[in-house]
Amino acid sequence: MTGLIVKNGKLYECRSIALVTCMKHQRTTDQIIEIRVELERQLVRLEQSMKVTDEALQTVELDQAAVGRLSRMDSLQNQSLSKGLREREVVRLSQLRDAIGRIEKGVFGMCTVCGGEIPYERLLVFPEAPECADCVS
Fold first, then answer.
1. Is 98 a domain residue?
2. N or C: which end of the chain has fewer CB within 10 A?
3. How do residues 98-115 score in pLDDT, each as one tens digit?
């Protein structure tokens, strides 16, 4: 069976088992493509955000002549906030990559806890969701 798959923002013809398996679980090719495109878009935005965060994590200059005491304190506080942001970005990056991996393996849309089907509407809102709403709560 052939279908279309999106990788790096481009459409490709696909003859993979993964697409066939996803389609067996009531996911249409268009739904898979729509979610894959959204995951790729979020991945690109996150990678751009991570570059900005990296810049914010640069070592704070402690030269008294360069900046005043309060400015240094602000810089240190901002750096601390950036570290927290970076940790959340790393988790999100992993979630997005895992979701794309599940599409490629053909198990996307299946709950990793109970094995049931995750409703398409949930996947539209949380495309990286590995569990159904019942298993999350």
1. yes
2. C
3. 999 999 998 999 999 999
User: Per residue, what are the HEC states of the chain?
Assistant: CCEEEEECCEEEEECCHHHHHHHHCCCCHHHHHHHHHHHHHHHHHHHHHHHHHHHHCCCCCCCCCCCCHHHHHHHHHHHHHHHHHHHHHHHHHHHHHHHHHHHHHCCCCECCCCCCECCHHHHHHCCCCCCCHHHHC
Quote the CA–CA distance of 126 and 121 in Å, as a whole number. Answer: 9
Residue 134, domain member (yes or no): no
CB 117 within 8 A of CB 131: no
Domain holding 46, by residue range, is 3-109
pTM: 0.69
Does some domain include residue 114? no
Confidence category of residue 77, pLDDT binned at 50, 70, 90: confident
pLDDT in tens, 6-22: 555 555 555 444 444 44
